[in-house]
Write a structure and sequence with these properties.
Helix content is 1%, strand content 46%. With 317 residues, it is mainly beta. A hairpin with a 4-residue loop joins strand 19 (194-195) and strand 20 (200-201).
Length: 317
Amino acid sequence: MSEPIHHSIRGGGYRAEVSGTGAALLALDYDGSSDAPESASRGSVEAYRLVESSPGHEPPLGYVGAVLAPWPGGIRDGHFYFDGIEHQLALTDPERGTAVNGLAWHRRWEVTAHTDSRIQQTLEVGLHKGWPYQLRLTVAHELGPDGLTVTHTATNVGGYHSPFGLGVRPYLRAGDTPLDECTLQLAAGTRMPLDRARGLPDAYSQSVTDTEYDFTRARLLRDVHLDVPFSALDADLDGRARHRLCGPDGRGVELWTGQGFGWLRATTIEEAGTRALALAPMTCPPDAFNLGIDLLVLQSGERWSGRWGVRACDSQG
């Protein structure tokens, strides 16, 4: 196996590490320098980590930070119809009987631009079993005073229109604070129930109001276990929906989702006695190729673009 390739960028009071495999965001730190964002410099904010890393592992463990395309989540039985044509994908999660998280997360991406504060990587998805569509994916990670901005594009470079979806799965941290001592706030009004055995939708979206899935106000995560795709994301006037994980000292991390990312999958995991939280911006829910919910269709030559980002914040934003 070839040696892992990791790329570093720095700017705006932040530093990040991005993998050459899956174009994965492996680490993001706020380093406390004088050009840090105004909202993060209120009070006595010091350097701390915002995104979990998986050092020494390539590809990243558990899809950490990787681009999940041309579909996020699982496709039931790896089977779908598109434009009247039957497709049978390889079952990449045979235990659950699904084709999971697309064709890009384990691939080596090509660096097409790299400066001190920005890196851009590109992947030709290519043809695969059950996947006859030709897509070009590009992702740019850029640091500035507002933290990390991630810009995705997908271009249909083939001769036929193509189904498409995309997700990313960063694991967030509020510094060194254990997850059970953190609060979570999500700008999400509905959630889609999943079959726990297969991780696939088993009902349509439901309101979170007055349920255990209501995080519209900050809630402590102690004893909370999640694997939930949320939608009806409530954007602010600037078009960004903001989601926050904060420690008891007020220091926290904000993940924002822009136009094009109408879903957010929240997942808690536990490894070696440590709990972690993934907040995954997604364009569609799992199994969208069969459900048709928020499925994108790219015509030949058409280009799609979407953005999300991460920044340091305090409990007041």
